[in-house]
């Protein structure tokens, strides 16, 4: 009997000791199932997608992708400038299209002429091109040759051009070829010393074509011009019907067959063409010539068809003669004293107020 009671008590104790474990297990299972259901039905936690402060800083500090640099940008925008029609360096000047239209935007230094036959438009916009040219070939100047259709305006040339023993030398251009069209040089001034052999001028060396006209207007030379023959303050040689208007020279001109404005004027090879016409021009520079072929305005002309000089004047004492044979001076063209050239009467007669207004600002 006693053994049965003990056995029963042991059974009860074991049952009671097992009760919390099973209940705890059921409770834990129930809680886990409830948490799983809540996670499946709850909205996503947006905070988990927000980068930390360190991650934001790292993203902000990452370098941007490199953008390729164009060739024109690496070369200082030269190609773009030329495409837009502007010139701001000697390199861009040399790279101009021969038939293009360009405006100079700053003073530049040029060490060699523009090599191609230029038939476009070049506007200096009042800027100075300093010439530092020593040439071993003919046709020398800011431009080697101007071709039909060319317009050069509003530019000042300074410095020096040395072409010893070479022909066709000028501050703006060595030669102008009007075979295919008219050429105009206007509102230009040369301050450079120009040295060459034959056909040398402060603005232009020469032009001998008769198909179209060359006009040099409102231009001035203040540089010293020297050569052996056909030397002029403005132009060395003009053959046929070309024009120099409203121009002046104040530089010293040295050589043979020289003039303060034009060295030599002639009809050319054709007997049907006219000779050059000079109008409203004056000279105050010293004309230093080695023989009789020289004068204050035109060095030599053509007797059968004289060069016409209209309303032109020269400072008394600047040359031994005002004009020479083959030059027809009309409209009271003559020497004037310094006092006369400073007077209001001379200004009205010579239209110098118009000339000065037209010449570079």
Write the layout of secondary structure elements.
Blueprint: H1 2-41, H2 53-61, H3 71-74, H4 78-83, E1 86-87, H5 90-94, E2 101-104, E3 108-110, E4 114-118, E5 121-123, E6 128-134, E7 143-146, E8 151-153, E9 156-162, E10 169-170, E11 173-176, E12 183-186, E13 189-190, E14 193-195, E15 198-201, E16 204-207, E17 214-217, E18 220-221, E19 225-232, E20 235-239, E21 243-245, E22 248-249, E23 253-259, E24 262-266, E25 277-279, E26 282-283, E27 287-289, E28 294-295, E29 298-300, E30 307-310, E31 313-315, E32 327-330, E33 334-336, H6 338-342, H7 344-350, H8 352-358
Parallel strand pairs: 1-2, 2-5, 3-6, 4-7, 5-8, 6-9, 7-11, 8-12, 9-13, 9-14, 10-15, 11-16, 12-17, 13-18, 14-19, 15-19, 16-20, 17-21, 18-22, 19-23, 20-24, 21-25, 22-26, 23-27, 23-28, 24-29, 25-30, 26-31, 30-32, 31-33
Radius of gyration: 45 Å
State the distance separating the first and last CA atoms: 143 Å
Number of helices: 8
Count of β-strands: 33
Beta strand %: 25-35%
Residue ranges: pLDDT <50 for 5 or more in a row?
5-30, 38-75, 352-361
**Major pleated sheet:** 16 strands, parallel
What structural category characterises the helix and strand content? alpha/beta
Helix content: 10-25%
Mean of all residue-level pLDDT scores: 81
Oligomer kind:
single chain
Shape: globular
